[in-house]
Specification:
Largest sheet: 6 strands, antiparallel, barrel
Helix content: 10-25%
Shape: elongated
Number of strands: 26
Strand order of the largest sheet: 11-12-15-17-14-13
Radius of gyration: 34 Å
């Protein structure tokens, strides 16, 4: 009996030793044949997603859990958009026990460094469903407590434009409210290149805010754009700072992002406030109801000079104005890109024009209603001119006042002046062999 018991114990001991050896060998394989494990991971990713991924090196520890991968590369296609991704270093840190017990979040942090994403947008694909994006984001963030990117870059290439973000640092972490996340973003160099390539902008971006994925998803934040350089042809403008504040929520029924509060400010230049709706249906549509206060018409006018004929180089305008109305913008429709309607009020402003042989100096004000698409826009209103003087080769006028109601259609380039009131303190006409001077002349005309 003792011999049989001894034999059974020997067999059991041998089996236990065998399993112990298997565990030791498996552990050694796991810890020292990391290239083998790396290959398994690459194959599993491709099997599950259809995306071929290459990882140059893989290192890990189990207690505490830490996984570090270097030189990760893969390419994929989303609708008509090709995406290439390269990651210099990706580090996961967490708790192996939480993974074993399936307790989320599995990972404490995921840190990416030197992430480079190049997206080539061939043409517009399927419509964007924001609810699906938020659902995917919420699911992804349930696995990790904090996500961080350092020194990363994003390049989006369209058919005629290119957007480049370099030196990007991004963090995402839970905030105090349930299902809400705090984010911070730094971009040391943001650049947009248009068509032709001489049209471009460049700036530095810094922002932060919160993103909520509760029953009514919401986003709020404040962004500061500094060192803003805008190049348009041979012209160049520089703005030290642009401030953007926003607060919005998502309407799942209409697939619409509603910014109830949006403010864009260029200090001492322009302040823009008003609600903005982004409608993601078959095509993206922007509905904007802004109030725009322009504090410096002279600076705005200098920006617009690149669009004006060379003959108007001697024109100067200094004053303020505001616009209040509505804009409906559909970027995918070049022929009907923007429908703008509203009221423009020009506060009393100083207007000067100097060219060879002529000089005009006056004060102007007015209000104008605008409506329609840019190529077929209707503008109607009243322009008032006061305290004006004009000096020309044969004519001088001082103390001139004008009251001009008008209707203008941009497509027909036609101006209808329904009536005209004009007066002057002094009018001098100097022609060869004759000189005429009259005081307090006036003129009244209709249907000009």
């Amino acid at each position: 009996m003792k011999k049989k018991l001894k034999k059974v114990l020997l067999i059991l001991g041998s089996i236990l030793l065998f399993f112990l050896l298997i565990v030791v060998i498996a552990s050694l394989l796991f810890f020292y044949r990391k290239p083998f494990i790396k290959g398994i991971i690459e194959k599993q990713i491709e099997k599950r997603t259809g995306i071929h991924v290459t990882i140059r090196t893989l290192d890990y520890e189990l207690f505490p859990l830490s996984v570090e991968a270097e030189a990760i590369e893969f390419a994929t296609k989303l609708d008509e958009t090709e995406v290439d991704v390269f990651i210099e270093k990706l580090v996961f840190k967490g708790d192996i026990h939480r993974i074993r017990k399936k307790v989320r979040p599995y990972f404490e942090t995921i840190e990416g460094e030197g992430v480079r994403i190049i997206s080539n947008v061939k043409k517009a694909g399927n419509k964007i469903v924001i609810e699906d994006i938020l659902r995917g984001f919420s699911t992804g963030m349930s696995y990790v407590r904090r996500i961080g990117l350092k020194n990363s870059s994003l390049e989006i290439i369209f058919s005629k434009q290119k957007l480049i973000l370099q030196g990007v640092d991004l963090t995402l972490s839970p905030s105090e409210a349930q299902k809400s996340f705090a984010y911070t973003l730094v971009c040391r160099n943001a650049e947009g290149i248009g068509q032709p390539q001489t049209n471009r902008f460049q700036n530095v971006i810094q922002g932060s805010g919160t993103l909520s994925v509760r029953e009514k998803p919401a986003i709020e934040g404040r962004f500061v754009f500094t060192s803003n350089r805008i190049v348009y042809g041979a012209k160049e403008e520089y703005f030290e700072e642009i401030d953007v504040n926003f607060d919005g929520e998502f309407n799942a029924d209409k697939n619409e992002l509603i910014f109830s509060s949006l403010e864009i400010e260029l200090p001492s230049l322009v302040n823009l406030t008003g609600p903005l709706n982004l409608v993601f249906q078959d095509e993206l549509t922007l509905l904007f109801r802004p109030r725009i206060q322009i504090d410096s018409l002279s600076r705005i006018f200098s920006l617009a000079k690149a669009q004006l004929p060379q003959q108007l180089d001697g024109l100067e305008l200094d004053g303020s104005a505001f616009f209040e109305g509505e804009a409906r913008i559909t970027p995918t429709r070049p022929e009907q890109k923007a429908n703008i309607s509203g009221l423009v009020v020009l506060n009393p402003s100083h207007f000067k024009y100097l060219t060879t042989g002529y000089r005009l100096d006056s004060h102007v004000s007015g209000s104008f209603k605008i409506d329609g698409f840019p190529d077929n826009q209707n503008i109607s209103g009243r322009l008032k001119v006061a305290q004006s003087s004009f000096t020309g080769k044969h004519l001088e006028a001082f103390g001139v006042s004008l009251d001009i109601p008008f209707v203008y259609n941009r497509k027909g380039s036609k101006i209808d002046i329904t009536s005209l009131k004009a007066s002057a303190a002094t009018l001098i006409l100097d022609i060869p062999n004759a000189k005429f001077k009259t005081d307090a002349p006036s003129f009244l005309g209709k249907d000009l």
